[in-house]
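Minutes, methods subgroup
Present: GH (chair), OT, SY

1. OT presented the first of two proteins processed in the latest run. Sequence and structure tokens recorded below as shown on screen.
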Amino acid sequence: MDFGSNDPVMDTVVARATPEGEGGLAVVRLSGPGAMTIARRVFLGPGFGPALATPPAPRRAVYGILHAPTDAQGDENQPLDIIDEALALPMPGPHSYTGEDTVEFFCHGGRQVAAAVVRACQEAGAVAAPPGEFTRRAFLNGRLTLDQAEAVADLIAAGSEQAARAAVAQLRGGLDAELGAVEWPLLDLLVRLEGSLEFSDDDDVAIPVTETRLTLNEAIEGLDHLLALAPAGRLLREGIHLVLAGAPNAGKSSLFNRLVGDDRALVDAEPGTTRDVVAAPVRRGGRLYVLHDTAGLRDDAGRVETMGITRARETAAGADLVLLLAEAGDGWPSLALPEVGAPPVLRVATKCDLGGATGGATGGATGGWTCAGASRGADGAAVPIATSAVTGAGLDTLWAAIEKLAETWNLDEAISLGVVLNERHRQRLLEGRDELSQLLGLYDGGADPGDEVAGTLLAATLARLGEISGRVFSEQLLDGVFRRFCVGK
């Protein structure tokens, strides 16, 4: 039995599905209505090639020879231009990743072999797959919702264990289920409103205003819950950005290197050594942190250093958490953070192994810093966390404070629910919430908008929310989503 036929309008596409570069194995994916025909022209093995005794068994790998394409008539005596010895895995649609006929070739890694296989498939009739084409077809063929397709990209790009777990949970339908809990009651309400218009003379189909208001309120609460998880989606996807800021020679670069575990930033006693932002990732407890070392903050800097200070303040304003550093006896420099939307600031005392001046920035009575790392003083006020980049003292306390703050950002809840919202999701949720709030406001104001107006507004809201899962989509929307995918996925 041969493979089933797919939509003849769709091209058969080919691309390498593994990264370029040296490696033991490379995968080339061929997908579309002509996948099997093209595979038979470039691969010789049981069930493949010009002379077919029996077709290949679906989803069972076949050992054979990859070669430059033979002619379409299948001349058995045609000499083969061999590319590689490989495995071919035939997967008939709809039971494949794309939902259409697919053949994957597993050949030796490296740049040349996989590139030659792709060229051979193109010469045999396939076209090069653009970025995200295979996942786009999986969406169009009903194998994935749009938010699940985006979770595929998130899983590939995951920079931490938590990000990968969250992407898998969303790929398994987490966001779609949470969104469905909001959409289905609204859809039921819409159907009943339309029914009341159809049978307007029947009092039995009239919907009480109190019931409509309750449904709208519950939907808004559901959207608010999802919107509260939006920051967690960004933090899981991009990492938690920590900015080290402080005056020159406050020990920023030394502490940065110690936290990163590598000499990434240049350290010198001369003030103004750091002129630009230096960033480095740190993976800890399954989370991804991105640390930023910045130029020292002072007023009497030269032109180039002033540019670095401006960039330092801009980076701090966009951080998730600022570690404001100061040495014993020194005051705290101004970060000039915005009044609205400023990140939290954690004060960190540096060089505690050196002692310090009496009092210092802590206002302590014992003189200088200690390496105890206390977070609260006797009066309950926050006390800077004392650290030493030389001895490592206080670093565990510092990390504990950072992780405690990270726990307030709903990362664990987002992971457990499989809700990794991106900016596209957030905008649709906000727009849907605003529309529902406007409709609810009409009822709360005592002016019944009528079933026709309410139904029109509800339909528009459901269409807006439907763009998240892809139940409602346009080619422009799909182009924007799949543009960030890699070739071969």
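2. SY then presented the second protein from the same run.
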Amino acid sequence: MKTSAIAWDVDGTLVDSEPLHLRALLDTCRRYGLDLSAEPADRFLGAGIVEVWEVLRPRLPEGTPREEWLAGISSFYREHSASLQLREGAEEVLLHFERLGIPQVAVSNSHRAIVDTNLGLFSRFPGFRFSLALEEVPAPKPDPAPYRRAAERLELPPAEVAVVEDSPSGLRSSRAAGCYTVGLRTPAVSLPPETANVWIERITDLPGALDLPTVHCTDRNPSNPNQEPD
């Protein structure tokens, strides 16, 4: 498998964002008179916000404006973003691939405001070549459109784009787009092995899974393994 670029999912993969997404959902629905506090905490784990809207729409007051409801979730998320944390090893691995010269992009099922909030957590990583948010693709994951568009913008065949995902919808999207799909295992989501080309337990396992130099996934210069991190 030739890895010419890496496309990262963001929520749950690079950023431990699921708890805040749940808080935003509960708070926003409560404002519309819908109490979800008795629902299982993992009911919407890994689901895109459009999927969540379709499930909850019949339980919301008739005529609830979708865009207003979505804006409420985004607003709560941004206002409480101080609670967000990066996944262990995320920034180190992004820096590692940057120094190997491998293009990296972010492909999210969240709105642009949330994507920018999440990506703002990275203090040392120079940044992705580009990021795609929900508003910028014809259809959300699990549709293949997000990863097809990413491959098109990278000017690469999908098979040369390694996608890192942790959710059922993201994995289906990547596979349907023809990308090389890397599944990141999480304790909360159990998925069949065939939903990904390869599985990893930790983000720091990714270079080895792609047969790329690992350099122990530290912030070291690949051309100088003895260099200490900055």
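Chair's summary of item 2: The first helix runs from residue 18 to 31.
Next meeting: continue with the remaining queue.
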